[in-house]
Amino acid sequence: MTSPASTDLHTDPRLFEGIDVYAVTGNPISHSKSPLIHAKFAQQTQQAMHYGRLQPELGGFVRAAHDFFVAGGKGMNVTVPFKLDAKAFSDVLTPRAQLAGAVNTLWIRDEKIYGDNTDGAGLVRDLLAQGIAIAGARILLLGAGGAARGVLAPLLDQSPKHLVIANRSSAKADELVTLMTDQAKMNNTILESTTHEGLEDSKNTAPFDLVINATAAGLDNQSPLSNLAAANVFAPSSFAYEMLYGKTSSFMQQALQRGARVSDGLGMLVEQAADAFLLWRGSDLATSIDPRAVLAELRS
Ligand code: ATR
What we know:
Strand 2, helix 1 (34-45) and strand 3 (49-56) form a beta-alpha-beta unit. Helix content is 38%, strand content 21%. By secondary structure, it is α/β, with parallel strands linked by helices. The chain folds into two domains: 4-117, Rossmann fold, CATH 3.40.50.10860; 121-266, NAD(P)-binding Rossmann-like Domain (Rossmann fold), CATH 3.40.50. The chain is globular. A seven-stranded mixed β-sheet has the order 1-3-2-4-6-7-5, with helices on both faces. The protein has a six-stranded parallel β-sheet with strand order 10-9-8-11-12-13, with helices on both faces. It contains eleven helices and 13 strands. The longest helix is centred in the middle third of the chain and has 17 residues, at 170-186. 48% of the residues are buried.
């Protein structure tokens, strides 16, 4: 007997006759707040739907996603570590999913699987909702992995004045600059890369208006910034955005120590979920959902 490709956490669409079923898929997934967020949106719009969790084995995403859609599942959010698998699983990619190089939202239409990426739009909306100006700003994006790539195009769309990508290994940051050069030009943004050591050079590093941590360092209770680099990049007028959520990370603490304002990524999570919800249930519901109220409830 082969082991199952996934642990079905009460998400089999066949259990919910007459109700559209969605799921968030990741490994691990038990901590995910997505089911709660989508239940709130469903309540706000009086939609009858079920949103559960799926935890495929590592390497088991395709089978789990295939089984879910064959059983009648309507759509899926995808999180770590399956966003590249979800891209490969999609028959049709939206332009922003292609640019992001990863997929966090799937749905089925006319027997085709569509893949989109709502992470970057979610980040931008959360920043704007917090009153952070992106147009004309000097931005430092820390990291050059999937999370950083996913938000790059939507950030450039807002026409920042200057966007610097800093990564431990410079080659990956250079690659992202090459990938986005044309879009940066169209938006009149100076796009550059540097290393984390480069940020320690006080002669060449002025404070940034907005510093976004898109590295995975927080998962190991680390900050990608040395204290020397933090002293250069943060001023009291800076805003530090941590894409992870749930605690005040080392990165956020460094910013707070220098008088900067900080945010974790819970608002981004809610806003990317809002986009996914509207893709699935219809954009006409945009005025009926209230992501900021859902965020306030999650924080309380
Ligand atoms: P994700 O999809 O979450 O972005 P990823 O593609 O594995 O995951 O990328 C992780 C990012 O976090 C990379 O930019 C990585 O830097 P490297 O490319 O140099 O590996 C960065 N990262 C992870 N741990 C880090 C740490 N302790 N300090 C600094 N950067 C870190």
